[in-house]
Amino acid sequence: MGLALDEARLALATDDVPIGAVVVSPYGEVIGRGRNIREATGDPTGHAEVVAIREAAATLGEWRLAGCTLVVTLEPCTMCAGAIVLSRVQRLVFGAYDDKAGAVGSLWDVVRDRRLNHRPEVHSGVRADEATGLLTDFFTAQRAAGGSGQG
After folding, report:
1. CA distance 93 to 49
2. pLDDT tens string 95-139
3. Chain-wide mean pLDDT for the chain?
4. What is the three-state SS of 118-150?
5. Which of 4, 19, 103, 107 could link 81 by a cystine bridge, Cβ 3.0 to 4.6 Å?
6. Nearest in space to 104 (alpha carbons), one of 112, 96, 116
7. Of 104, 41, 95, 29, which Cα lies nearest the Cα of 67?
8. Spatial separation of the C-alpha atoms in residues 124 and 96, rounded to whole Å
9. Could you tell me how far CA 45 lies from the centroid of its own chain?
10. Residue of 7, 29, 39, 49 marked catalytic
11. What kind and span of H or E run contains 72?
């Protein structure tokens, strides 16, 4: 989670919401890193999880991330939860819950939906206070500066 938090902090340089992610191979190697890049690239799919999953798939040379763990600072949204299921990530570890858009227990529970063909193991609340603090500080600064209040 420390590496995912580091990625989240890097997102601040481009005024992106500070969310970070890493994909770890079954052998404990980091094979994908990501942070939110929506503001930096203008890409609505530029979420930390998607960026990290894409990099991991490129590293492995295939789309199946069997045996891999995705570590992310915030509970994934529906798009990212779908990407987690479709990429066959074995384990999802996340920090803070997202009461506004979370799809791993808060609003929906996409990754545990029994109708889908893959359900990763889920571990939540890991270093949640740190992840929440980054987000709270970011949005407080955005409001004070009259920023977009993006989310």
Report:
1. 11
2. 999 999 999 999 999 999 999 999 999 999 999 999 999 999 999
3. 96
4. CCCEEECCCCHHHHHHHHHHHHHHHHHCCCCCC
5. 103
6. 112
7. 29
8. 7
9. 12
10. 49
11. strand 69-74
The answer to whether residue 49 is catalytic is yes
Instruction: Give the list of residues 6+ apart from residue 4 with CB closer than 8 angstroms, or none.
Output: 20, 21, 22, 48, 71, 72, 73, 95
Which is nearest to 138 in space by CA: 1, 32, 36? 36
Q: Report pLDDT digits (tens) over 31-59.
A: 999 999 999 999 999 999 999 999 999 99
Read off the DSSP letter of residue 68: -
The answer to whether 96 touches 77, Cβ cutoff 8 Å, is no
